[in-house]
Amino acid sequence: MTELTASPSVWRDFLAQQGARFDADGTEVLGFGPATPSPQSLESFMAPLTGLGLIAASGEEAATFLHGQLTNDVQKLDENSARLAGYCTAKGRLLATLLMWRDGQTVFLQLPRSLQPAIQKRLQMFILRAKAKLADAGTSHAALGLAGPAAANALTEWFPVLPQQAYDKTSNGNGTLIRLADAAGSPRYQWIAAPETLVAAWPRLVQHLAPTASQAWRLTEIRAGVPSITASTQEQFVPQMINFELIGGVNFKKGCYPGQEIVARSQYLGKLKRRTLLATIDSDTAQAGNEVFAVTDPGQPCGMVVNAEPLGEGRALALVELKLAAAEEAIHLGAADGPALHFHDLPYELADPQ
């Protein structure tokens, strides 16, 4: 089954009652109330992740099927951890980046909801005789991102033992809680549960955490150096170009998957020439898919914005894929005389293949 339905109305309706403002598509939460604090001013917050979709792959051969489709090991995925994974074309170019976890025989795949219909349909084409079924789990699950020093204390009422390391996972009757990579030294969690569970928890959560726009969560993803493929960047990058193997998204010891030979060749044949860097951009209109240019070679782009979110004061925070040879030069958005990029250290090292 590949037909998708709308996001859970009970969750969206509840958020609207709490003052949530949505974008024109009714998907992303733009804020709560008439004004939303700048993400920079929020030390701890929670953000409804209504822009994320969820595919449930169930059946005794679901993990085996996905293992042959994704860049990471699905067969050895246990119920105490989550993993990043990529879905590539035969040419090794990423169609989607995913967060995946297991619950019994069901493997969940989380990705931008805008990409879900096409990705789910494409996966469905390859199931053939495998004993596996794909379904949209967005009607039965809602996701909430929680970040900052107060997040752990806010969650202990429902999860007395919290996951301690990045991509550790715990589940109980209140749903699934995944610890994600820290952002600027602050812990981040994602709580995935039945909408009714999150609705019931909301009044107590707001005593600890300020509700805010989904954008605040995406900024933490950028700060953590975790890229997300969107519609404008599909088929632009092999995994290493967005540092995906450095953050646990690729397993080079597993079996074949679409594009595996090219991904492996990129890893083992010579030094990588392109990577993704963290940058602020002197423009708050920067978007994923925008090209960037070096002053010394204005005729052709030297890279592309992978993800970007406004920071306020006319700036954006971004992950930018770039020719490493150009990284020491003056880089600009859109043209060699466009808004300037200023690069910063990532929270992990850009290691070369061994």
What's the gist of this structure?
The chain has 354 residues and is an alpha+beta fold. The protein has helices spanning 9-17, 62-67, 116-125, 151-155, 195-205, 214-223, 260-268, and strands spanning 20-22, 29-32, 45-48, 52-58, 82-88, 94-103, 106-112, 133-136, 142-147, 169-172, 175-183, 186-193, 210-211, 274-281, 291-294, 303-312, 315-323, 331-333, 341-344. It is 17% helix and 32% strand.
Terminal CA distance reads 42 Å
| Multimeric state | single chain
Helix content: 10-25%
Shape: globular
The spatial strand order of the largest sheet comes to 10-11-12-9-3-13
- Structural class comes to alpha+beta
Q: What number is the mean pLDDT?
A: 93
Individual helix count: 7
Give the percentage of residues in beta strands.
25-35%
Low-confidence segments, ≥5 residues, pLDDT <50? 1-8
Query: SSE order, as H and E?
Result: HEEEEHEEEHEEHEEEHEHHEEEEEE
Total beta-strand segments: 19
Q: Can you tell me about this structure?
A:
By secondary structure, the chain is of the alpha+beta class. It has helices at 9-17, 62-67, 116-125, 151-155, 195-205, 214-223, 260-268, and strands at 20-22, 29-32, 45-48, 52-58, 82-88, 94-103, 106-112, 133-136, 142-147, 169-172, 175-183, 186-193, 210-211, 274-281, 291-294, 303-312, 315-323, 331-333, 341-344. The strands form four sheets. Strands 10-11-12-9-3-13 form a six-stranded mixed beta sheet. The longest helix is centred in the middle third of the chain and has 11 residues, at 195-205. Residues 1-8 have low confidence and may be disordered.
Descriptive labels:
354 residues, alpha+beta, 6-stranded antiparallel sheet, 7 helices, 17% helix, globular, disordered N terminus
